[in-house]
């Protein structure tokens, strides 16, 4: 009798633990993104995540992490503290295609005055992709803003180049996905935790 009660209790604990663990990750297109992460001694929460499509093809999953949930672009760009965009590749892609997508997103969402101010950092950023090998399915890139350090990029945990010091540069990166002409409108909605008819959680 006591043994049966103990087994039931253990089973209940296992079920509860399983539910908690499931709640700690969001799955998008088979990619699991942690609900919370630690960056610069700060806990960040997954604001929203979705799929970057090109035509009918799924290119990557992107997730936005902030200290507090935000649902508007101005609030995201003004959010204090560290921030992160995590990208997980869903298909192989050449560094040229990946870099071209980033640079086009910046060009389409950055005004002339800001481009002029950040020219040297944009040039260095464009050159960065020449040093990156072909991106493979499953590769993970992080784009971090760390106050006092700058924008730090990593690929599979390895830092890419030196930090980019200006917050304006990081916000220019964010506008690739969140600007007025985002690379994917459905992904923008998903990162802002807005409902999307196309469903970015497939």
From TrEMBL:
Coiled-coil spans in chain: none
Pfam families in UniProt: Chalcone_3
Residues in Chalcone isomerase domain copies: 25-192
Tagged with keyword Signal: yes
GO function terms (MF aspect): isomerase activity
Residues annotated as signal peptide: 1-25
Protein name stated in the entry: Chalcone isomerase family protein
Source species of the chain: Undibacterium curvum
């Amino acid at each position: 009798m006591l043994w049966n009660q103990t087994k039931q209790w253990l089973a209940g604990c296992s079920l509860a633990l399983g539910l908690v663990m499931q709640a700690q990750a969001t799955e998008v297109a088979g990619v699991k993104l942690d609900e919370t992460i630690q960056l610069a001694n700060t806990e960040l929460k997954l604001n929203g995540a979705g799929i970057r499509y090109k035509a009918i093809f799924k290119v990557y999953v992107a997730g936005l992490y902030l200290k507090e949930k935000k649902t508007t672009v101005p609030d995201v760009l003004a959010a204090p503290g560290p921030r992160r965009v995590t990208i997980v590749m869903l298909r192989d892609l050449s560094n040229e295609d990946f870099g071209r997508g980033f640079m086009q997103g910046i060009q389409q969402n950055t005004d002339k005055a800001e481009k002029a101010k950040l020219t040297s950092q944009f040039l260095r950023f464009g050159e960065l992709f020449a040093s990156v090998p072909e991106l493979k399915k499953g590769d993970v890139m992080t784009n971090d803003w760390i106050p006092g350090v700058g924008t730090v990029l990593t690929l599979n945990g390895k830092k890419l180049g030196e930090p980019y010091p200006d917050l304006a540069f990081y916000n220019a990166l964010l506008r690739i996905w969140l600007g007025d002409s985002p690379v994917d409108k459905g992904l923008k909605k998903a990162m802002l935790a807005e409902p999307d008819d196309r469903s970015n959680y497939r």
